[in-house]
Write a structure and sequence with these properties.
By secondary structure, this protein is α/β, with parallel strands linked by helices. The chain has 14 helices and twelve strands.
Length: about 400
């Protein structure tokens, strides 16, 4: 039987290897004073690294801390509650639990740990598919849950250049984009970094080895499709092939406008199942659904367009066939949705917060399509600075 000491040893090894030079700004978004903290997010966004960095920055000794991944072999023979009890009895103060979705009864046992050991702080991470409010135990009243996105272009610039640029609120960006851009380009040339960000910079694992990014992106997509989605939802393994084909189609589209009837007829899968599968892909953060503006629940209706979740996925799946127009729109959607509501525009590409209209294109894009639309903006790629209502695309990566 594997003993607790093995987990302690593995944690000490991870602690020793953890670097604190490149820390995501997301660490500042979390109120670490809460006693039960949950961090959800897509595979590869850096949840594990963030927790280990937090521990290393705030705990000079590991005696009062224990990190454990719940997919470790230890948990085949031991339960989580017993581990927490032993750790607590030895004076433990912080229990960090990674990959909780790999443990069958995680929500009940975390609830009991939280209730029975009042001086123990718990941090846990899980897949973006994790439905906290649907868990058997009522963790929603106890836990503070954060959803961790991939890197913003602003964070990427910090890692690449060492310059810290302040987060810009959307209204400020729209009003003062020219001066803001001039301040930035006086220090760096953002376009020198932008194309690389689109190809491989959304996931912080690029920092480990750029030559392996394409392989890791492929692994992330495959594990989500082959393991995560079947684990959480009742999806036949044979139908996973359809999801993979669907992702390839979306990656090469401009963008993809779904026809559920056609997909159903071609695949032999019912329309209701196709709709469910699209939702699963969205929950797993493999795709983004763009819905029309509605006062109801837009996710209940058919999306007008479907994008891959981020531009890195487009290049990973489509390679040289990646459509640059699709890449630009995907970047805009992905970055802006972190801070605002994004819907289909009746006259252009996007309607944001039911107020601002955006048309996204290359540097030669004209304003004709939005010339009669109030509160409208032309978003151009391949320009350093803008003018009037024309804004550089890269600047929308400064919102978070």
């Amino acid at each position: 039987m594997i003993k607790m000491e093995v987990l302690v040893q593995r944690f000490n090894e991870k602690y020793a290897r953890t670097q604190v030079k490149s820390i995501r700004n997301f660490v500042q978004e979390i109120d670490w004073n809460n006693r039960l903290i949950g961090i959800k997010g897509a595979r590869g966004v850096g949840k594990t690294t963030l927790i280990l960095q937090y521990i290393k920055k705030n705990y000079s000794s590991t005696d009062a801390v224990l990190y454990a991944s719940l997919d470790h072999l230890y948990f085949l023979e031991n339960n989580l509650y017993s581990l927490a009890e032993k750790f607590y009895q030895k004076g433990g103060k912080l229990l960090a639990l990674d990959e909780v979705h790999r443990y069958p009864n995680w929500s009940n046992e975390i609830k009991n740990i939280y209730d029975d050991f009042p001086d123990l702080k718990i941090i846990f991470t899980g897949s973006s598919l994790l439905q906290i409010h649907k868990s058997k135990a009522d963790l929603s009243r106890r836990a503070v849950i954060y959803n961790m996105p991939g890197l913003s272009f602003r964070e990427y610039l910090l890692f690449e250049t060492g310059f810290t640029f302040s987060r810009i609120e959307l209204p400020e960006l729209l009003k003062n984009h020219r001066q803001l851009s001039l301040d930035i380009i006086s220090k760096i040339k953002p376009l020198a970094y932008f194309s690389d960000f689109l190809k491989f910079g959304f996931f912080p694992f690029y920092l480990e080895n750029r030559n392996l990014v394409e392989q890791k992106l492929s692994e992330v997509i495959n594990v989500v499709l082959d393991v995560d989605i079947p684990q959480y939802e009742q999806v036949q393994i044979s139908n996973i092939i359809l999801l993979k084909k669907l992702l390839h189609i979306i990656s090469e589209s401009v963008p993809f406008k779904p026809n559920f009837n056609a997909i159903s007829q071609r695949s032999g899968i019912s329309i209701n199942s196709v709709k469910k599968y699209i939702t699963y892909l969205d929950d797993a953060e493999l795709i983004l659904q763009l819905h029309p503006c509605s006062n109801g629940l837009p996710q209940m209706g058919k999306p007008d367009k479907i994008y891959l979740n981020n531009p890195n996925y487009i290049y990973s799946l489509a390679g040289d066939r990646a459509d640059i127009g699709n890449v630009r729109e995907t970047f805009f959607f992905n970055q802006v949705k972190q801070v605002a509501e994004v819907n289909t525009s009746p006259t252009s590409d996007f309607l944001v917060n039911k107020l601002y209209t955006f048309e996204v294109g290359g540097k030669n894009k004209k304003k004709k399509q939005i010339s009669e639309t109030p509160n409208s903006y032309l978003v151009k790629d391949d320009i350093e600075t803008g003018y009037e209502n024309t804004i550089p695309l890269w600047m929308f990566g400064l919102l978070y």
